[in-house]
Amino acid sequence: MIKIAVYGKGGIGKSTTTSNLSAALSDLGLKVMQVGCDPKADSTKNLVRKEALVNGKIPTVLDQIKQKGKNLTLEDIVFPGYGNTLCVEAGGPTPGIGCAGRGIIAAFEELERLKAYETYEPDVVLYDVLGDVVCGGFAMPIRGGYADHVFVVTSGEMMSLYAANNIASAVRGFGNRGYAKFNGLILNSRNIENERNIVEQAAQEMESHIVKILPRSGEVQTAEDERKTVIEALPESDMAKEYRDLAKKVLEAVKAA
């Protein structure tokens, strides 16, 4: 089982990238579980089958724990998505009440208690993690043995690269204890001036590299307007080809690690 954490600053396109990566990996014949680790619980909204949605989202692990307690089953928290994908949203507390990081920890513990990975036997698990902070629960994938590989989605914007550097530093720190490995950056282009060179320079400073450059494309918004990934909505499009190439490069990077 390949276990990957995808980090990135909020609003950088991390969930869009992860969902399209999941869909592309599924098209390669792999069974993929995507676990959303953002309190907004919107990581899988374009991936999951629409009949599973409740008020536009799937029920979160934390919400289901509150409602069902020890009667919780895997069917309450794991939902089918496009192709061969499985969708999970950890969820979080009401804004302003409680710690979102601790919520993620509770969700991870519940997935383990219910033996989700043994039951579904996914080939790939993708953790979609908010990268503005790398403490507490948000660091669980890289320090708790959940993920073996880390990719960071970034643009050439300063705050995005600042978050990427923080994540890379944290991974290197935890890596000394045998935890996850930092596999590189995914440049989700914003078309700012000299963007590629800026990110290449930042990658060198992180002692890493750019795994894939994703061009900016209106096809992404067109697909999201349908609440679908580009892979599903526009399978023959140029952007779908880019996401398929990303899937291949991620698998190559993991094998080479």
3D architecture notes:
The protein is of the alpha/beta class. The chain is 41% helix and 18% strand. Strands 3-4-2-5-1-6-7-8 form an 8-stranded mixed beta sheet, sandwiched between helices. Strand 3 (79-80) and strand 4 form a beta hairpin. The model has no long low-confidence stretch (mean pLDDT 90).
Structure keywords:
257 residues; globular
Task: Reconstruct the topology from this structure.
Elements: E1 2-8, H1 14-27, E2 32-37, H2 61-68, E3 79-80, E4 85-89, H3 100-113, H4 116-120, E5 124-130, H5 140-143, E6 149-154, H6 158-175, E7 181-188, H7 195-205, E8 210-214, H8 218-225, H9 230-233, H10 238-256
Parallel strand pairs: 1-5, 1-6, 2-4, 2-5, 6-7, 7-8
Antiparallel strand pairs: 3-4
Helix pairs in contact: 1-10
Query: Distance between termini?
Result: 15 Å
Fraction of residues in helices? 40-55%
Radius of gyration (CA) equals 17 Å
Structural class: alpha/beta
Question: Number of helical runs?
Answer: 10
Order of helices and strands: EHEHEEHHEHEHEHEHHH
Strand content: 15-25%
Tell me the number of strands: 8
Principal-axes shape call: globular
Largest sheet: 8 strands, mixed
Summed over residues and divided by their number, the pLDDT gives a mean of 90
List low-confidence stretches: none
What order do the strands of the largest sheet run in, or round the barrel if closed?
3-4-2-5-1-6-7-8
